[in-house]
Write a structure and sequence with these properties.
This protein is mainly α. The chain contains 11 helices and no strands. The chain has helices at residues 8-35, 57-66, 69-86, 123-159, 161-175, 179-186, 196-221, 225-232, 237-273, 285-292, 301-328. The longest helix has 37 residues, at 123-159.
């Protein structure tokens, strides 16, 4: 009976190929642990890039946003608002604080397309300069809320325990405070005409929402296998949190912050309308709406234009946030 023949060279080649595959796998796992998971959202529905690499969450989202007309329209409006906030003299050459009582409540005329308000101020110039206040308050407040809420929420979700319990009870207390009522109480004692007290108040009452979003995202991300593997290899808490968890938990925070920016602009206008936010001689849409309310019968244009500018601005930021949310949500792919 013939004995089975052996092929040492083939066996050696097969063994070498197997060892090479194992080595390559180990190298790949090492790179993942060093650099984080590869293209976390690319697996959520993104195909390969033209170069052959899988698309990431952000490249997929940017591709979807460029094709979304809602995003394009809202982005154009926001870019226009930012430009006139930085350089209002590009489209308004007048002085928003210069008023002439002889022209009070007059309608549109040459050089004054929006007419004049009850104090004889040019409505067009004040509407343009009011964008600077609203955009600056919205952007600064959103940055402060996102930074404070993200840090506190991420620490609570990552470490848990007593820290998480204490922060959860603190957020419950802040959620129980009515925003407008809190503004009436806290800002009524402030005499400053700058935007910083209003920004500080919004940050004080706005961070719990972002904190809960960040906490939930971190709790979800830290349960992934690559985080457990990094911990088993001896990675420090700061490295795990910054390199592995934060990049995969920041998307929901960005979405909520973008939508909240429009809400903060409306909140500033509301507080200014009630007389506890910005105060004259500051230029704000809320101040102009409050001043024009008594003259709504005789000069409705003085109320229409700042109200319309406020509504368009808030709507643009909310539309932008909705578009970003849809682009970053893997379930909608």
């Amino acid at each position: 009976m013939p004995e089975p023949s052996f092929e040492p060279e083939g066996a050696a080649a097969g063994t070498g190929a197997a060892m090479g595959a194992v080595t390559g796998l180990a190298t790949t796992e090492t790179e993942i642990l060093e650099n984080g998971p590869p293209a976390t959202a690319g697996a959520a529905g993104g195909g390969p890039e033209p170069g052959g690499r899988p698309r990431s969450l952000w490249s997929d989202a940017w591709r979807d946003l460029r094709r979304n007309p809602v995003f394009l329209v809202s982005a154009l409006i926001i870019v226009f608002l930012v430009v006139i906030s930085l350089w209002p003299s590009l489209i308004a050459s007048g002085n928003p604080l210069q008023c002439d009582l002889a022209k009070a409540q007059q309608g549109a005329g040459p050089g004054h397309p929006f007419g004049f308000d009850g104090q004889g101020c040019d409505v067009y110039t004040r509407t343009v300069y009011g964008a600077r206040t609203s955009v600056s308050v919205g952007v600064c407040a959103t940055l402060g809320v996102a930074l404070l809420g993200s840090v506190l929420g991420a620490l609570a979700g990552f470490f848990g325990g007593v820290w998480d319990s204490v922060l959860s009870r603190i957020t419950d207390v802040f959620f129980a405070i009515p925003v407008v009522l809190g503004g009436l109480v806290l800002l009524s004692v402030v005499t400053s005409n700058s935007v910083w007290p209003v920004i500080g108040f919004i940050v004080l009452l706005g961070w719990p929402q972002i904190s809960r979003i960040a906490r939930g995202a971190v709790i979800t991300a830290k349960q992934n296998d690559y985080v457990q593997a990094a911990r088993a290899l001896g990675a420090s808490n700061s490295r795990i949190l910054l390199r592995h968890i934060a990049p995969n938990a920041v998307a929901p925070v960005i979405v909520v912050a973008t939508i909240a920016l429009g809400t903060y602009i409306a909140l500033e206008a509301t507080l200014s309308y009630l007389g506890v936010g910005l105060k004259p001689p500051s230029v704000s849409w809320g101040i102009d709406i409050s001043a024009a309310s008594p003259y709504i019968r005789n000069a409705p244009h003085a109320l229409l234009w700042p109200s319309g500018a406020l509504a368009v601005t808030v709507l643009a930021f909310i539309m932008l946030g909705d578009a970003v949310r849809d682009a970053l949500d893997p379930k909608l792919r």
